[in-house]
Amino acid sequence: MKCVVICGPSGVGKGTLINMLLKDKGCGRLGFSVSHTTRKPRPAGEVDGVHYNFITHEVMEKLLKKSKFLEHARVHGNIYGTSFEAVEKVICDGKICILDIDVQGVRACRRSKLEAAYVFIAPPSIAELERRLTGRGTESEEQVTKRLRNAIGELQDSHQPGLFDFVIVNDDLQKAFRQVQTSSSSLEPSPSSSSLLS
């Protein structure tokens, strides 16, 4: 079973790069694992079941108690998680599964021995990341400050030996995309019968 695990601070451009991967026919058969989150959809058109599976804290806690998640994390006052079901759905379609998770999730996937290319997307600088977060206008000043504080920790973690296979600086979108393409180019989809639980 093969996956591409993409990680990086909020606002670094992970979503844009993932969308480019999914649309690029040269990347082969790729599929996106839709994560669960307890946060509300952003007003800019996030769709339930497409961008995230939006659920309540109560439902999420129940699913966690039933061990339904490959990884989960409590971030910015919300819970995010990747369910076994979401990943297996992509793999059973004969596709390489793309996961968009945070550093805590990466550690959980490493512990679970998930076979994947682990890619960290970094901003050119914290100042540029702040500009991007402020520019998208979806968070309050307090939320931006919290995300920047978390980003500094994530950037430090990205240099931890053995955690990431690739660290890509997104200072030029097309250049970063080519590097992400390269990081996933050696992966092959697993047989559709593969299971995370086997």
UniProtKB/TrEMBL annotation:
Regions that span the bilayer: none
Molecular-function GO terms, alphabetical: ATP binding; GMP kinase activity
Highest rank taxon of the organism: Eukaryota
Subcellular location: Plastid, Chloroplast
Keyword terms: ATP-binding, Kinase, Nucleotide-binding, Transferase
Keyword Lipid biosynthesis: no
Keyword ATP-binding applies: yes
GO CC, alphabetical: chloroplast; cytosol
Gene3D superfamilies per UniProt: Guanylate Kinase phosphate binding domain (3.30.63.10), P-loop containing nucleotide triphosphate hydrolases (3.40.50.300)
EC number of the protein: 2.7.4.8
Pfam families reported in the protein's UniProt record: Guanylate_kin
Family in the record: Belongs to the guanylate kinase family.
Protein name: guanylate kinase
